[in-house]
Design brief:
Elements: E1 7-12, H1 17-27, E2 32-33, E3 45-49, E4 52-58, E5 70-74, H2 78-87, E6 93-94, E7 101-107, E8 113-119
Parallel strand pairs: 1-4, 5-8
Antiparallel strand pairs: 2-3, 3-4, 6-7, 7-8
Length: 120
């Protein structure tokens, strides 16, 4: 029996951890979570999203712009996040409408697809 979702993982290029922390911890305000000692040598970093974790690993040789894979962050004030991202010149992509939700997408600085979604 599957009990729930423990964590999700995305990747960024090797050597981009500081830029990744600036985006995910700085702009998106996600708190960094310390990795177990046994995994620190693998690079990347972890952040906490609500009661779950997102593992941001490192991986080269992958075209992140060619995939529809993404994380969707549930938010309380989607207009706030639209404004924050626009202030950082991050292109907002309007998503296909879903009943009872307002949402938009964007690409992080590494090409990962990200969605912000709010129930209305």
């Amino acid at each position: 029996m599957i009990l729930g979702l423990h964590h999700a993982q995305i990747t960024i290029p090797k050597g981009a951890e500081e830029e990744g922390k600036n985006f995910y911890c700085g702009i998106l305000c996600l708190p960094e979570k310390e990795k177990p000692e046994s995994l620190k040598g693998r690079g990347g970093f972890w952040v906490t999203v609500g009661d779950r974790d997102v593992h941001i690993g490192i991986e080269d040789g992958f075209d992140r712009l060619s995939t529809k894979a993404h994380l969707a962050y549930q938010v309380e004030n989607i207009s706030y996040w639209r404004n924050v991202l626009e202030q950082y010149n991050i292109q907002i992509i309007e998503g296909v409408p879903i009943p009872n939700f307002e949402r938009f997408e964007f690409r992080d600085p590494f090409g990962n697809r990200v969605e912000m979604i709010q129930e209305i």
